Structure formats: C-alpha cells, structure tokens
Amino acid sequence: MSFRAAFSRTGLRAWQVVLTAVAVVVGFVFSVQSRTEQSIEAGLQSSSGRLGEVAYRYRAEDERQATMRQEIIDLRGQIAAEEQRAASEQRVTASLTHELDELRAEAGLTELRGPGVVVTVTDSRRPLRPGEDPNLVLIHYSDVRAVVNMLWAAGAEAIAVNDERIVSTTGLSCVGTTILCNTRRMAPPYRVVAIGNPDALLAAAQARGGILAQLRAFEFPVTVTAGTDLDVPAYSGGFVYRYAKPVVEP
Amino acid sequence: MWLPILGLLAGLALGLLVSVQVPLTYVKYSAIAILASVDTILGGIRAQFERRFDLTVFLSGFVVNTIFAAALTALGDLLGLDIYLGAVIAFSIRIFNNIGFIRRDLLGLLWRGRPPGVEEPG
Predict the structure, then answer these.
(1) pLDDT in the model for residue A47
(2) Other beta carbons within 10 Å of A219
(3) A23 and B28 in contact by Cβ < 8 A?
(4) Is A208 helix (H, G, I), strand (E, B) or coil?
(5) Distance CA B38, CA A19 (A)
(6) Is residue A95 part of a domain?
(7) Cα B64 from chain centroid?
(8) Contact B8 A36 (CB under 8 A)
(9) Do the beta carbons of residue A126 and residue A219 sit within 8 Å?
(10) Number of domains forming the structure of chain A
C-alpha cells in the first residue's frame, strides 16, 4: 500500500498512471503498426490482410519462373542441337556443291584451261589429177573423229574441235561438204584442242602409224603444237534425256 | 483525465520516431491486438466515468483481450478460417457500445450535471 500512498501524495491516482502507461503502449504499437501497414502497401500494392494471398501468388510465380527457367535451358539445348545439325547439313551441302562442281566440269559444262596440244588438220592443197576421187584431198568426219579418239586414248581430259566442246553425247558426222559437231557445222581447217599431259598427247600424235602419220602420208597439212595455257570452252548445248532413265538401285 | 491522452500522443509520437517495424508475419495479429487494446481502454474510461473502475480488471482485461485476440487470429490461420473477423466484429461492437456509454456519461456530466452511471434514455 506504500505505492498508493506515494501516488496520493503526488496527487495522481493509480488508475491514471496505469491508464497513461497503457495509452503510451497502445499509441506506440498503433503508430508502428500503421507505418508497417503503409510500407506493406507501398511495397506490395496490397493490404496486410491479403499477405497470405500475396505469398501464395509469389510461390506460384516462383514455381512458374522455375519451370520457365527449365524451359529456357531445354530450349537452349535444342538450339545447340539444331545448330549442330545445321552445321553438319552445311557440311553435306558443301560437299554436294563440291561434287556438283566436279561433275559439271566432267560433263563439259565449264570452261577449262590447262596444258595440252593443239592439232590442226585441213584439206590437202594438192591439185587433183584427172580422174582422181576428190575425197582423197578432203578431210572427212572420220578423220577428225580419229584424231579426237586418238587424243582421248592418250589421256586427254577435255577436247574441243573448232571451239566446240566434245561431250559424252557429241557425235561427229558428215553433212554435205561440212562436218557436224554437236549442233554446229564446221569447215576446215579443223583445230582440235586437247587438255592433258602434253608429253603423252604429243607422243600419241607423233606415233608411227598413227592417224596423223596416215594423214601426212596422204599429204594433208597437219600441225601439232604443245601449249601450256590452252582454253577449252564450255559445252553450250543441252542434254535431253527423253527415253533413258537412271536405274535406281533398290 | 488528460494524462492518458497525453500518454497516447506520446506513444504515437514515439512510434513514429522509432524506426521499428512489426515483422510481416505478425502484422495481422498485432492489428487485432490493437483493436482489442483500444476496446479495453475505452472500457476502462467508461468504467471510470461510472465509478466502477477496477485496476486489476482493467489490466487483466487489457493483457488477456490483446493476447486472446492475437491467438484467435493465429488459430484462424492454422485452420484456414477467418476467425479474426469474429474478433474484429466483437471488438468493433464493443467499441461502439463503450463510445456510446462514454458519450452519454459525458453529456450527463457536462450539460445536465447528473452524476454518471445513472441510466438515462437515448
């Protein structure tokens, strides 16, 4: 009871002091609470009563983000795989392009240049004696074909007659007084350009009993010159296969 | 009479000055506790007017009401049930009641010179 005695001496009553203390506590807690609430609303755009909901949404978003991250990783892996595939496809394409280039060259669709020989043959300038067959002084398609075949046999890689490329479908034939090569008519002199090993080609051209020797024997003017930088033009005609079809191996 | 109000203002000022925040987990509980304590204080004021204020009843009411309100909210959270709504409604009704009685006591005291605690109509 000394407490109460002390209080009564100060003129204050016990209830006033207790109430004041409680009021201080309540005021303090109230302002702290309101400030907390304000910071929550400022930070989350939601009242504290919906914190549970916010937490739920946060967890849901967190999970979604995790799955999305996993998705990103998966997609990156797919991109890498696709890139690898594209790269290998590119390699395949490159090798196919290379192969195509080689095949084009072999088919005669490209202009080629290299060392080789030039064989020129022309009609004989020997005057015909009476009663003699004029065929004796003319170069026939068979002569040109023989020259070409001789050069092929000697290892020529590309041959052109009067700038007309000899390809796999080329046939030399006789059309009146001219020679038909591919689709072009030719008149003498016939200039056969062959690219290949010049020594081998020269050796074949000068072989004894060869076609050039035979022509010389009939007094046809024949020249054979080796060159280091000969041009063989590209085949300008078309390949039409209307009946022949490639056999596809099963 | 003015001392508790001064104390309330001092507490508010202190709360604004001190940078303490309620942990986010307990924000809901402390809000209910504040409501309970406000109700208790109003009850105490009313009891004072009616001259039946008991310090022990007041203090125990303050402590028990506050803690019980917070505990009830926590229980509601555990059960997934919004029990705190019940506490909010109960305390709000009591606060309005107490304010009504305080108003009548004040009116009787100040204007009609009648001693508080005497029931009057309206």
Answers:
(1) 73
(2) 12
(3) no
(4) coil
(5) 12
(6) no
(7) 12
(8) no
(9) yes
(10) 1
Which among B21, B28, B77 is the nearest to A32, CB-wise? B21
Specify the CATH number for the domain of residue A186.
3.30.70.1880
Residue A43 maps to a domain: no
Ranking A112-116, A233-237, B96-100 by mean pLDDT, the lowest is: A233-237
Mutant choice from A4, A10, A26, A38 vs B, greatest count of B C-beta within 10 A: A26
For the stretch A126-140, pLDDT in tens is 888 888 787 788 888
* pLDDT tens digits for range A145-170: 899 999 999 889 999 998 889 888 88
User: Helix crossing, A198-205 with A141-153: angle to 10°?
Assistant: 140
Chain A residues with CB-CB distance to B20 below 8 A: 32
The mean per-residue pLDDT over the stretch B85-114 comes to 85
**What's the one-letter identity of residue B18?**
V
Q: Which domain holds residue A226?
A: 112-232
- Could you tell me if residue A33 is inside a domain? no
Does residue A203 fall inside a structural domain? Answer: yes
CB-based contact, B58 to chain A, within 8 Å: yes
> CA B59, CA A22: separation in Å to the nearest integer?
9
Predicted model pTM: 0.47
Upstream peptide bond of B115 is cis (omega within 30 degrees of 0): no
Q: Does A58 touch chain B (CB under 8 A)?
A: no
